[in-house]
């Protein structure tokens, strides 16, 4: 059976957005501990399918990670 047929019947796991669940949280570039959840071990910004964020929060997180890098709060590369 080809792989494409097997994946059609697979149930999608509903991932809930971290920021939508915690309504009090605001995406902020100074909150480096939270932002580190959304980067890989190589300090690349994680895609939506891995991070589980909604589209609007994914855009905000990406912008705030870039701000944190500019402010030297986060690195561009892992050491």
Provide key terms for this protein:
5 helices; 43% helix; single chain; 79 residues; mainly alpha; 30s Ribosomal Protein S18
What is the structure about, briefly put?
With 79 residues, the protein is mostly helical.
Give a written overview of the molecule:
This protein has 79 residues and is an all-alpha fold. The chain is built from five helices and no strands. The chain has helices spanning 3-8, 18-21, 32-35, 48-51, 55-70. The N and C termini lie far apart (44 Å).
SSE pattern, N- to C-terminal? HHHHH
The stretches of 5 or more residues where confidence is low (pLDDT under 50) are none
Rg, alpha carbons: 16 Å
CATH superfamily: Ribosomal protein S18
Number of strands: 0
Number of helices: 5
N-to-C CA distance: 44 Å
* CATH fold title: 30s Ribosomal Protein S18
**Approximate strand percentage:** under 5%
Helix content: 40-55%
- What is the oligomeric state here? single chain
Mean pLDDT: 88
Largest sheet: none
In the CATH hierarchy, the architecture is: Irregular
Shape: flat
